[in-house]
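Figure 6 in text form: structure in, sequence out.
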């Protein structure tokens, strides 16, 4: 076979060679051991939480080594692509502050010297490499129809072959002569370009997976399709070319790709490319509520599978990333305790500290992490985040916050910015209900939380006495001193320990008195600092609400 002539027959318009591409995309000038990673999604829908998990792994790996993380869009499967799917991916990353050093930045935009970063714009590169493979006798055209391939599969089933696919005696087009190929092409017969595999059926390959250690697998013996009949490359071929010419050093991807490693290594070697390091990450799992088993997060069953869920619910990006890092590296939580205020991207991420088994995504744990994250934010930060979230998702809250910014910040600052801040808020969608009693437009009176051990008469007596002694100008100590002074004349003790010793001697204790006032003014039994709440509500509203409570309990 004259492979040179065959390559010209199949690719008459391709004049470049792999050497030209090597010159155009030279090795990156990075420090020793710097890692180049890539996240390479298909624009087929929303960004999945597993995608954010994977992208964060790529970015953290690159940052920890002074390397480069880039975003590549793999859009060769046009049947599955959705309109403007790229924007859905970009917006998902933007919402969580996960940025790439290079790659696609938006619809039709990109940055970096190793592009285009969208596969559909790299067809000339794939054909250049494909032509070179034909020239070396490592690729050939296959004219088998879909019907013939189906028939072949049926015969393999009947014979009980261990492997199904186009190989060995089943590879009917593998040994066509040049004249036979030319005749078929001249007759207009469609064809695909296949890889001429040289693996042995009893051969093995061993590769080091950074996360899983040494893995032994059968060699690839399948003559995989490289270019489809329309000239579009398959994923297997395209990503090999892209990873080489974008100078990827570490391919980090989901464990479902482990089975493809033999064919990928065979393709890298056939093309004369250095094989990258592999790290196959575990799947993101959850506990099934029905039977308690572990299962993969489902786009259909689980709203939290889409990162848009966390945006709409108002989980801060810091909370989601913080939580994901607890799944990614076993030592992250210890590092966070030692570095409570450090930027997460300064964490010394290590692929070897990733679990090889499935990571359990737990919304309860995320909620706890988020409460901690929000608790150490300043009131100004929380106000800014809530305002931005509410502008899109809660117009009423947005209007209230926008109308009186300082009032809103003062509300948010109660029991905040101190050594032991409260941890009441886990997401911005909870804020409206949390602060509703500060706004007449949101407040709904409810006095059902009054202490059950007190009669209506005792509650009324407490409220009437408080109206008498309330002075909005009192300092905190003076204010609490007055509440203590109220206790004994009304049959309560100002000393909680005394009440516990002799409960039968008193109607209640100072905590019960405070609770009566708290419920009357806020309709809540559990709130931040009551003194600050009263200061912010102001005398007119405090007295008005206490009078409403007096009427409400009669």
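Output sequence:
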């Amino acid at each position: 076979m004259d492979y040179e002539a065959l390559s010209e027959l199949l690719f008459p318009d391709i004049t470049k060679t792999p050497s030209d591409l090597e010159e155009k995309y030279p090795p990156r000038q990075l420090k020793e051991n710097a890692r180049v990673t890539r996240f390479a999604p298909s624009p087929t829908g929303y960004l999945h939480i597993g995608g954010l998990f994977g992208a964060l792994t790529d970015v953290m790996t690159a940052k920890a080594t002074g390397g480069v993380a880039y975003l590549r869009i793999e859009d060769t499967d046009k049947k599955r692509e959705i309109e403007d799917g790229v924007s859905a991916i970009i917006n998902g990353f933007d919402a969580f502050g996960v940025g790439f050093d290079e790659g696609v930045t938006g619809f039709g935009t990109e940055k970096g010297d190793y592009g285009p970063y969208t596969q559909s714009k790299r067809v000339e590169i794939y054909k250049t490499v494909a032509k070179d493979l034909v020239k070396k006798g490592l690729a050939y055209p296959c004219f088998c129809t879909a019907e013939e391939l189906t028939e072949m599969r049926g015969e393999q089933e009947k014979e009980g072959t261990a492997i199904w696919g186009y190989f060995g005696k089943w590879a009917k087009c593998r040994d066509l002569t040049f004249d036979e190929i030319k005749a078929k092409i001249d007759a207009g017969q469609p064809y695909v370009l296949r890889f001429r595999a040289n693996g042995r059926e009893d051969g093995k390959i061993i590769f080091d997976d950074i996360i899983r250690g040494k893995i032994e697998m059968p060699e690839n013996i399948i003559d995989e399709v490289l270019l489809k009949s329309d000239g579009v490359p398959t994923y297997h071929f395209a990503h090999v070319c892209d990873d080489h010419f974008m100078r990827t050093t570490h391919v980090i991807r989901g464990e479902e790709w482990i089975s493809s490693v033999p064919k990928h290594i065979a393709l890298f070697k056939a093309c004369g490319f250095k094989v990258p390091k592999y790290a196959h990450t575990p799947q993101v799992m959850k506990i099934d509520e029905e039977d308690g088993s572990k299962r993969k997060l489902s786009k259909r069953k689980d709203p939290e599978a889409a990162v848009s869920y966390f945006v709409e619910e108002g989980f801060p990006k810091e909370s989601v990333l913080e939580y994901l890092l607890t799944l990614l590296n076993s030592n992250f939580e210890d590092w966070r305790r030692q570095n409570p205020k450090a930027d997460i991207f300064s964490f010394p991420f290590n692929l070897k500290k990733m679990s090889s088994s499935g990571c359990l995504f737990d919304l309860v744990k995320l909620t706890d992490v988020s409460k901690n994250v929000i608790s150490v934010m300043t009131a100004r930060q929380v106000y800014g985040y809530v305002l931005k979230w509410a502008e899109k998702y809660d117009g009423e809250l947005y209007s209230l916050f926008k109308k009186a910014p300082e009032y809103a910040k003062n509300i948010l600052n109660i029991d905040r910015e101190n050594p032991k801040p409260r941890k009441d808020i886990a997401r911005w969608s909870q804020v409206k209900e949390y602060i509703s009693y500060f706004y007449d437009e949101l407040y709904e009176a409810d006095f059902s939380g009054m202490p059950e051990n007190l009669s209506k008469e005792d509650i009324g007596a407490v409220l009437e006495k408080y109206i008498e002694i309330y002075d909005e100008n009192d300092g905190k100590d003076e204010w609490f001193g007055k509440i203590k002074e109220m206790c004994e004349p009304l049959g309560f003790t100002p000393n909680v320990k005394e009440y516990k010793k002799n409960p039968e001697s008193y109607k209640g204790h100072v905590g019960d008195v405070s609770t009566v006032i708290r419920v009357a003014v806020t309709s809540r039994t559990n709130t931040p600092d009551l003194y600050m709440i009263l200061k912010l509500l102001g005398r007119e509203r405090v007295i008005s609400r206490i009078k409403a409570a007096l009427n409400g309990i009669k």
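Caption detail: The CA atoms of residues 226 and 440 lie 67 Å apart.
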